[in-house]
Every structure is written in C-alpha cells, then in structure tokens.
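Sample intake sheet
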Amino acid sequence: MVARGGLDAIAEESELSDIDIDSTSVLYRDMFLATMDAIGDQMHGMHVSPMILYRAQLLKDAVMATSVLDEKCVFVCGSFHSDYHSGIPDQLPADISYLTVKILPEGDELDPDMADFVIVRED
C-alpha cells in the first residue's frame, strides 16, 4: 500500500500508528536509490516513484525493528536490511545493542565496514 500510495495510504492502520520511522540515514537512502536505479527495468511494469518505494522500505525496516524490541534473539534478514548498520539498525532505539553479520559470496568485494562480522562464503 505504501509503495503505491505513500505513507498516507496506511494512516488508518492502527497497528502501525505507534511505529516511528527514522529516515535520517543518507547512506541507506543513497544505497536504496542506487539499487532501484540499477534494477529499474526489472520492476515488472510497476510505475512507482523510487522515493515512495524508499518510504515503504523504511516502514518494513521499522516493523522488523519493532518486532525484536525487548527480545534477546538472532534476527535473520536480507543483507540490504542491515548492511553498514543501516536499515533495521537505523530503526532501533539508540540504547539497543546489536551485532550484524554479513555473508559475502566469494569474489564479491570485501568491505570490513559492511558488518561487525563478515563471513566469506566459498562456492
């Protein structure tokens, strides 16, 4: 709904009314928009503003972050949702401690800043 109508499309969804969305990460926004630009023609004819899709992405991250509050857990997500401590980590309160792990396919460029732990997968 957000991808097609912006955040106003869910204004009446009571279960989402208490979720705060942090959109201050310029790094995450730039990575998201670059990804959308790179796959733009693969969006299956979806004519949607990349910024509206970005807001939908932020909402997904905020919902996932909210789901683990007050839990000690291992949370598994797609790497885009946690690379460079952005995405879901951006949506967590500042006093929450967490570690991120990145599984990197062999041959992909290693950047130690991607996560707290980077595991290189050998094919």
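Comment: The mean pLDDT is 88. The first strand starts at residue 101 and ends at 105.
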